[in-house]
Amino acid sequence: MQVAALQFDVQRAATDTRAHLANLAAARAAVLAAAEGGARIAVLPELWSTSFPSADAGADQLLADAAEEAAVCAKSWAVEFGIVLAGSFLAPADGLGRAGAGRFFNRLLIHDGPAGGEVVLAYDKVHLFSPTAEHEVFAAGNDLPGVVDCSAGRISGAICYDLRFPELFLPMRHAEADLVVVPAQWAGARATHWKALVLGRAVEGQFTVIASNRTGEEPLGQRGRTVAFPGNSLVVSATGEVLGEGEGECGAIFGLLDPDLAKKQRVRVPVGKDRREELYAKWKKSPP
Predict the structure, then answer these.
(1) What domains sit in the chain, N to C, each tagged with a CATH number?
(2) Is the separation of the CB atoms in 48 and 27 below 8 Å?
(3) What are the backbone dihedrals phi and psi of residue 205, each rounded to the nearest 5 degrees, phi first?
């Protein structure tokens, strides 16, 4: 089965309609390239239609409208190209935060094109990256990502910083996910961490990870420092084999995988059966 991670230079669309339209155009071109390459599933970067909002709430409604339009586009592209399409969007967190904090969720949506474009999974990012003060703008989700069946297999997902929290991914292995999607904006300065974590989550979870990381540069965080993004998206199999890796180019990064590999790997290396649950339960009750 062919899969694809999509990467491009995401433009910050605070009050700039041109930036939003540029993001839509770049995303559609990448989805088209994925479909023409035979991909059954494609993953867009984190907040691909707007990038991150600023601390100023003045443009919130414009950003919410742009993200809503992008979600409609994603559904239509999934149907048009007959593909499962994943990506994250801004979603208003009405009433969950004071002005200037907790104004949005960072929401992963997976649209199943062959099933009419329905949203088969929605997940709000639970881990907020404090070094760039995400907590001042975003509300953290309160639910773990689900594991659902779709036309491309049994699937789950996480968002960017979530990769550093292996406990988030453990229920995905318990529920026998075949594929896990991870849209991200992961800085080039920590590129070695990115690759190590994507590989680690795939191997320990015994599922394929399709992780999309953007290209370009953007000022982020309280100090507005310019962050460079390397476009090093990854497709990693359940055995830890790198099936596809981006090298800074825009477009689709493909990986060809055995859709039954995750099931085979769980039989070959029965981590679930061999796990000492009673010891972990004891540790949680009385940490050493």
Answers:
(1) 2-285 (3.60.110.10)
(2) yes
(3) -85, -20
Q: Please write down the long-range contacts of 193-201, taking CB distance under 8 Å and 24 or more positions apart.
A: 193/164, 194/163, 194/232, 194/234, 195/232, 195/234, 197/163, 197/164, 198/163, 198/234, 198/236, 199/234, 199/236, 199/240, 199/242, 200/166, 201/163, 201/166, 201/169
Q: What's the CA gap between 148 and 178, in Å, rounded?
A: 10
Mean residue pLDDT of the chain comes to 93
Residue-wise burial string across 3-33, b where 16 or more C-beta atoms lie within 10 A, e elsewhere? bbbbbbbbbbbbeeeebbebbbebbbebbbb
**pTM of the predicted model as reported, rounded to 2 decimal places:** 0.94
Largest CA distance in the chain: 56
229 close to 248: Cβ distance less than 8 angstroms: no
CB 179 within 8 Å of CB 236: no
Pairing of strands 104-112, 84-92: antiparallel
Q: Taken in order 236, 112, 122, 50, is the CA torsion positive or negative?
A: positive
Give tens-digit pLDDT for 156-179. 999 999 999 999 999 999 999 999
What is the distance, to the nearest Å, from the Cα of residue 6 to the centroid of all Cα atoms in its chain? 11
Q: Is the dihedral of CA 183, 184, 188, 193 positive or negative?
A: negative
Nearest to 15 by CA among 71, 53, 42: 53
